[in-house]
Amino acid sequence: MIKGGLAVALVALALAGCGGGGSSDQGNQIAGNAPVIDHDRGNHAAKPSPAVIKLRSSLRRALRKTGHQSGVAVYDLTNHRMLFTWGAGVKRAPASVEKLYTTVALLHQLGPNARLRTSIMGKGHIGAGGVWHGNLYLRGGGDPTLGDGTFNRVWEYGYGPTEAQLARRIKAAGISRVTGELIADESLFDTRRGGPQTGYAPDIPDFGGQLSALVFDHGTAAPKYTPATFAARQLAATLHAQNVQVTAATFTARTPRHAHRLASVSSPPLSVLMKLMDMPSDDLFAELLTKQLGVRFHHRGTIAAGARVISHVIREYGLHPRIVDGSGLSRQDSSSPLEVVDLLRKVWHTRDGRILARSLPTLGVNGTTRRIGVGTPAQAHCIAKTGTLNYVTNLAGYCAGRGHQMLAFAIFLDGPSNAQAIPMLGWLTGPMARY
Prior knowledge:
The chain has 14 helices and ten strands. The protein is an alpha+beta fold. The strands form two sheets. A five-stranded antiparallel beta sheet has the order 2-1-10-9-8, with helices on both faces. A hairpin with a 4-residue loop joins strand 1 (70-76) and strand 2 (81-86). Helix 4 (98-110) crosses helix 13 (351-359), helix 9 packs across helix 13 and helix 10 packs across helix 11 (303-315). The longest helix is centred in the C-terminal third of the chain and has 17 residues, at 418-434.
């Protein structure tokens, strides 16, 4: 299982303390036009309490060490007030904090129980002795979790369907030999293997694989094999091991009309896919799921089409970040800390907000935040999405303060190296957890 029970308990406790469990409309009640207190300009909306004064003083002191290109926003969800802003309206590259927008859009459009299906389709007929006369088509549905059982146990926390399950279902259908070929069908999406930051060329260092509507073992490819044909080859090998004779084609093709579904497997529900995306900040998951939005709501399985869907959903929250991909890898993406905090407070107390919170790692404990805030009050008391590019180090999420307030925050640090900025995130989240 994915670790993060502490984060779930932390958020659940805060929800109970703040009247959680209400309808999705409650998030909009929290999200009115809160006063913006921009401390780098010295504006004060009201006489602050000693706790607020201490928080602001600690955050200012930490921010003076980060350089001149930082943005921070902190909002008290319990008392519905902005506590602190510092350069918070300036739009910057969100990096993987972008995945907060992607997560909310996916949950909004597809729902937490949506699953993605990979199917074996047949064009032909079964004859004597279990011989299938015709071709089989392995049709990808954009599931990023299809893989080998061992791979999924190690890399996907044990989630995800396997080629062995598909092979058993083909054998159970009575097929023992195929006269034609097993052909990969990746036609649901385009065949661009990377994202906009590389001109859509493969980007193995960031994605850990190549994009396709049919991926196996996280988009693994091989010489002379695309991700889709590699998946077909792996399935053919597994079928051979189960005494089903078939040859995998080295090309892809669209499944013919009127083909019959002979077997299928499904992904985990979207609520689990969000954990698998956000905990490790998986860019391949983000872009495949972005393409899923594109094909379902813009009839084009492209990152650009999916990004338009994400933008449309986020505009419904009154927010206007620039979204060009789902992962945040592109430096053309831009958002401000205020926009991110607005999103976090608007989804608070909603179904999608609760699932989003459960998808986030816990500072100092797990996921991409396991080295952030270690030894500070933020450790085990904040959950957040990280975002890093070269000289961009961001963090956004929720902190439970000692006074039982729940805070939403966004920190964007531009300028310091990532190694320099990681401890700075602890300096900034520590005071929030002490609040």
